[in-house]
Amino acid sequence: MSSATATEAESATERLTLVEGVREGLHTEMARDDRVMVLGEDVGKNGGVFRATEGLFEEFGEERVVDTPLAESGIVGSSIGLALSGMKPVAEMQFMGFAYPAFDQLVSHAARLRSRSHGQYTCPMVVRAPYGGGIRAPEHHSESKEAFFVHEPGLKVVVPSTPADAKGLLTAAIRDPDPVVFLEPKLIYRAFREAVPRGSHAVPLGEAAVRREGSDVSVFTWGAMTRPALIAAGNLAEEHGVDCEVVDVRTLSPLDVGTVVASFEKTGRAAVVHEAPKTAGVGAEIATTIQEEALCYQEAPIKRIAGFDAPVPLHALEDYYLPQAVRVQDGILETVGF
Amino acid sequence: MSSATATEAESATERLTLVEGVREGLHTEMARDDRVMVLGEDVGKNGGVFRATEGLFEEFGEERVVDTPLAESGIVGSSIGLALSGMKPVAEMQFMGFAYPAFDQLVSHAARLRSRSHGQYTCPMVVRAPYGGGIRAPEHHSESKEAFFVHEPGLKVVVPSTPADAKGLLTAAIRDPDPVVFLEPKLIYRAFREAVPRGSHAVPLGEAAVRREGSDVSVFTWGAMTRPALIAAGNLAEEHGVDCEVVDVRTLSPLDVGTVVASFEKTGRAAVVHEAPKTAGVGAEIATTIQEEALCYQEAPIKRIAGFDAPVPLHALEDYYLPQAVRVQDGILETVGF
Amino acid sequence: MSTHDDTDHRHSTGATQPDTEPIRVLDDDGHLLSSAEPPALSEAELLGMYADIKLARHFDQRAISLQRQGRIATYAPMTGQEGSQVATGHALDDEDWLFPTYRDHAAKYVHGAELGSLLTTLRGYREGYSDPAGVNLLPEYIPIATQVPHAMGMAWGQLLQGNDDTAVLCHLGDGATSEGDFHEGLNFAGVFDVPAVFVCNNNQWAISMPRERQTASETIAEKAHAYGIEGVRVDGMDPLAVYAVTRAAIKKAKAPTDDERRPTLIESVQYRYGAHTTADDPSVYRDEAESEAWRDRDPLDRLETYLHRTDVLDDEREATIEAQVEDEVAAAIETAEAAETSPERIVEHVYEETPDRLAEQLDELNALREKYGDDAFAEVLG
Amino acid sequence: MSTHDDTDHRHSTGATQPDTEPIRVLDDDGHLLSSAEPPALSEAELLGMYADIKLARHFDQRAISLQRQGRIATYAPMTGQEGSQVATGHALDDEDWLFPTYRDHAAKYVHGAELGSLLTTLRGYREGYSDPAGVNLLPEYIPIATQVPHAMGMAWGQLLQGNDDTAVLCHLGDGATSEGDFHEGLNFAGVFDVPAVFVCNNNQWAISMPRERQTASETIAEKAHAYGIEGVRVDGMDPLAVYAVTRAAIKKAKAPTDDERRPTLIESVQYRYGAHTTADDPSVYRDEAESEAWRDRDPLDRLETYLHRTDVLDDEREATIEAQVEDEVAAAIETAEAAETSPERIVEHVYEETPDRLAEQLDELNALREKYGDDAFAEVLG
Ligand SMILES: Cc1ncc(C[n+]2csc(CCOP(=O)(O)OP(=O)(O)O)c2C)c(N)n1
Ligand SMILES: Cc1ncc(C[n+]2csc(CCOP(=O)(O)OP(=O)(O)O)c2C)c(N)n1
Ligand SMILES: [Mg+2]
Ligand SMILES: [Mg+2]
């Protein structure tokens, strides 16, 4: 064992990418609770098309890391049955855009098993999916329709934006007594590393994180878009003396209304940044909530900086589709200059 | 022929219920264009579980009014193929809550055939579904998740609230070159009759209708909720001297931003009423659009009067779940009193 | 192109034909078939099955009339099908799990659900879902075929947790076989070889759609081959045959021999005598004469005849059972009509912990109830 | 319970076994099998098929290297499978419709797509979808199995419009057979008896999932029975056999005899030599030695041998074809690399008429491009 490794092993953290954080979250929980199992397409020997489940098959065996037939409704539907039986399934949808065949199982069943049975049965399960654009993937591979799941009561919806949160929120999701849709921003799967606590590490669901404090304008965002938001915030501070507060919403359902509203009450201005189409996206929910709760503080329209109301284009144009730092920056300036 | 019938036959209108308006729309378009066909579960001999397709099987035959196997993805998927082949399919989902198995076909394909093929192919089809609560139906039969479809670019989403609109908007939907999700408020399928033009009658998509002019507050709603909204408006005028403008949005996608914003600029206050869960519903989109376009006119928070963030309860409690006139009224008063 | 026409013929898999004759133990009149032996059931067990079928039939009549009187909501009748339901229920061990549809009232009852609870649910009270502890029974499924992957997953979970003594029985209709979830669930069941028995209650109709137009395959049982599992066809109006076939399938699911696979698809051939639900009028789409032939093979009549002929039943016992059945249903109706609910239920059990926003929505509602009274909520259309 | 164990055995439909041997015309070395006759193809047609397979193989190599150089995005190779693709393409009449997957480059080309367009799309330019008029070809399908109901509907539409001369060919993979849409589409095809041929390119793998774990049924062809349609298994690395079987299926689809049903499910047994896509590394999950046995039955080699032995092909003709193929692919690359696109494309063809809000979104983007320059849009992560 090299000395570097020895040091690392002793330290309380390790430097991981976001996708490694996911993997570590799975690993830690599987080691801790043998009811936790992983299932999906190519999650076993292949370790997942993004390597999120790498090594788990070898370590936990084919009964707990299961390659399934190619059928998303079957995956989510059988996970519901597994959850009923006492297991804690973590199902992977290979890409968020391929979760739609399982939509009925998610909204009609996973979300409602508890309420349908008047609390007799519960459905503790996680449905993970790589999500969002920006990696030059083929058609249908760049969806970010978190709003579909946020609109369904009974589901929780979580999007991590950092390696530590990927591990910590996934841990909390696995331990949660209710079904969680866990969307992983694949654009930043490997974009950077940060120190992630070793061993058990849970970050509570339902709490937004203020990534940058500021006083002039609040930027609400999540997932991969936290990056351009922070870049824009940096530029705006330097170039325009605008002090942005950047709030990583993290849990989209249930929404941390307290943190969102508190930030807005401080700044009186806001932008929401998301990749999904603007119309009827989660940005609308956040803006509406703010005007419901804090209209008296509002000094400018809340700006939505979002994907087009169009399908994500083929990869040659996707950088024009996604909110770029430049769009975020310009949008914030519009808000500030109102 | 009785004299009453003779008179009716001569007049330019006939008094129909909403579901009869739907049926008349189908009938007129099928008679006019033999590419129009109807397919779905129990739409043939049985005439549909709500009788919306009654008599069509007898008149147009089993090739144009087709009972399909029990498979919603198959119905929508084969309709896409039919549309590609030159037919104009009108597919019925027996209830909106049973459209979820077809969700992938709707959002990944119907919505995108035109854009995926760079305009080479189009998908002119209508997917009809009875929707909403209030009729004491069993579990899963009372869904009103229009927001799911509004968030998907490429789809149009239409909800009629009157018999004449049911016929007219359905006619326009059938003639539309793009896929339309046509949601029929079954609570008011037979609630009242009104004069509906005979023969060809199209009401353009994309245009909201002001059902009651008013100057104090705008109420935006659609479908079955137009009734409690109008009742509330009447009561408020009488009892509180509050003059409501009631706007029936009718086409939820694309939204008639012009009419919505113009109404708000006049009143400066608004409520949105819908049955669907409040969070991430279409109410959020309307409220956000208003604050984007007309913040300077805004005198009070836009009030959402909506379903609970919970599944629709079994029928014994559904009247507490749905926005009632009393809730609408109280909500409007809150807005006005802000 | 003459060659491959020949080749086609030789190699096409289109030629194989499954045996389509359903398994029977009793003939149409309730006489033991010479080719069959009755299943090994004690007199008490046979009488129990008989009493349950009697109860199911009586319950069905009462429920239909309660619906007509507006005392319960839409109801899906089961007359003609209750023999099969009761038999599958009796084939289960207590620890087995049952996944029922909206029509499987009798199967649920046999597996431990209380009649009063069933009726409470039909009144629209979620409180009806309160099965006694240890009753392994899901709420009835309305979205067609969606229970199939759940049942598969539940069975898989038993296997993974080493519960060799627990199997899963999943009911579905003939219409359900057209849904993607049927396919995906059965394919998973075959691949993971789970202890699940899928009983397709082929009652010849899916609302107005006759079985022949639901699928072009000759039988439903043969669909099992597409999943590498066993398919069996049974006379669904012969309770003894259904019992035998289901019991064998449950046993095989738990302890297959080396060359057996655990899952089975049972096609139970039966007929829906009545309407699809109380909201349906079958005279619009089917010739009621068709049902006559099926009524001649009525499961209750056949079992009754058999039990009389084998001296398990006599008129006195029959009368006692009849009286018990009526009492039990009457008591259940009383229980259900005494049940109460409250708008608070809307926000309960959505999550383990009710989110603030949802709690606030309830507060808003309660404030309005306080202010305007519950009468103001009576009718949406005012 | 001895009785129904017997009964089970007698009546169970589990006993039927389809013939699983795939149809072949050529042996592994490209010799005509004594039992077979070659399909009635002219020399020109045979040479055309050969040239197309050559082109497909060359295209595949070039596309893989273009991807490595970053000149196109993720690419799904087809080497080993192009014989079957080309053969099914040749089996179509011009008016027939083709529903391809992301791997069916060669089938598309044979049916009329331009190579330059295929590559333009792979560059991420929607402009690549501009097939010449009259080429009845859908854009490739990525969401697995979703094309199956579309193909069914397209075929149904032909029938409803009285187009007796038009059939539909739908490609899908072995993995696709697990999806609900496969089931629903094939069941509809059986019920409505439409002129559709479904070709399952069973290349033994769905990314890392081997065929045996995809489904417990012995063959894919036998799944056809569940839908009351014909299932055929063919050696997918024998282009002549695939041609013969597909051509017969297309003819039957258009003009079935009285006892035939129009739809066919063809299982074309083949092997994916390479990676699933250029983003995949098969050495992680499969033993590359496995492919050797398959490579011994290479479709190009076999056809080449056959054509040489029957004097349809000689070395000179081979060299000419080789040169033509290289020129054609090189020209296509040039065409694709000359293609241009523009951000305006994002909002085009979402609807026939672009909604105001979407038009405004484009205006906003264009204003930003004007203000900050296109370079500012180069990287989302700055
Ligand atoms: C996904 C879905 N689609 C449609 C319906 C409406 N529906 C309720 S019952 C029924 C027919 C079911 O037929 P079958 O499976 O044969 O069961 P049966 O009612 O005959 O017992 C239909 C279409 C539904 N409940 N779920
Ligand atoms: C609905 C859906 N789920 C998952 C995927 C991801 N995916 C792409 S290709 C593939 C495997 C397909 O296997 P098969 O059908 O055998 O076709 P092949 O790639 O072997 O040609 C998967 C899982 C997808 N594209 N669509
Ligand atoms: Mg049925
Ligand atoms: Mg494959």
Describe the structure.
With 338 residues, chain A is an alpha/beta fold. Helices cover 38% and strands 20% of the residues of chain A. Chain A contains 13 helices and 14 strands. Chain A has helices at residues 3-10, 18-32, 56-60, 72-85, 103-110, 113-116, 146-150, 163-175, 226-240, 257-267, 282-294, 318-321, 325-336; strands at 13-16, 36-40, 65-67, 88-92, 126-131, 156-158, 180-185, 194-197, 209-212, 217-221, 244-248, 251-253, 270-277, 303-307. In chain A, helix 3 (56-60) links the parallel strand 2 (36-40) and strand 3 (65-67). A 5-stranded parallel sheet of chain C has the order 1-2-3-7-6, with helices on both faces. A two-stranded antiparallel sheet of chain C has the order 4-5. Chain C folds into 2 domains: 8-338, Rossmann fold (3-Layer(aba) Sandwich), CATH 3.40.50; 343-378. Classes of the chains: A alpha/beta (338), C alpha/beta (382). Chains in contact: A-B, A-C, A-D, B-C, B-D, C-D. Chains C and D meet through helix 1, helix 7, strand 6 and helix 9 of C and helix 1, helix 7, strand 6 and helix 9 of D. The structure holds thiamine diphosphate (2 copies) and magnesium ion (2 copies). One thiamine diphosphate sits between chains C (103, 142-144, 173-176, 201, 203, 205-207, 272, 276) and B (41, 70, 72, 94, 98, 101).
